[in-house]
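Hey team,

Filing this mostly as a record. A colleague (T.K.) asked me to run one chain through the structure pipeline before their review meeting, and I want the input and output archived in the tracker in case anyone asks later how it was produced. No errors, nothing strange. Just documentation.

Input sequence:
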Amino acid sequence: MRKTLGILVALFVATAAFASDMPTGPLKKVEPNMVCMVNEMAMGKEQIPVEVEGKTYYGCCEMCKTALANDASKRTATDPISGKTVDKAEAVIGAQEDGRVFYFESEENLKKLNALYKKG
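Output structure:
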């Protein structure tokens, strides 16, 4: 029974990752200043801060700075666990091995996502 449940959880996670914008494996928490919030990638070095309405976002180049400053949609993301819209400046950020990042409304949601992959 337990093995069957594990297989079902793994199948659900794999299907969700294929069907939507879900991570493909467990994530490692990263600091916001290491992320280009336009390219959705952990860059491995500090990014350029962009102040908007008292909050700090990060971009890797002048084009990303402009996008963050002028396009509100670039400053939000969807938490893959809760489905809620989160402000990237306030989010907990997790990165896959390939550097792609995902934004969470809480540390708890990041832990929930990682627990899904550990069960499979």
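Quick notes for T.K.: The helical segments are 2-19, 62-70, 107-119. Residues 2-19 form the longest helix (18 residues).
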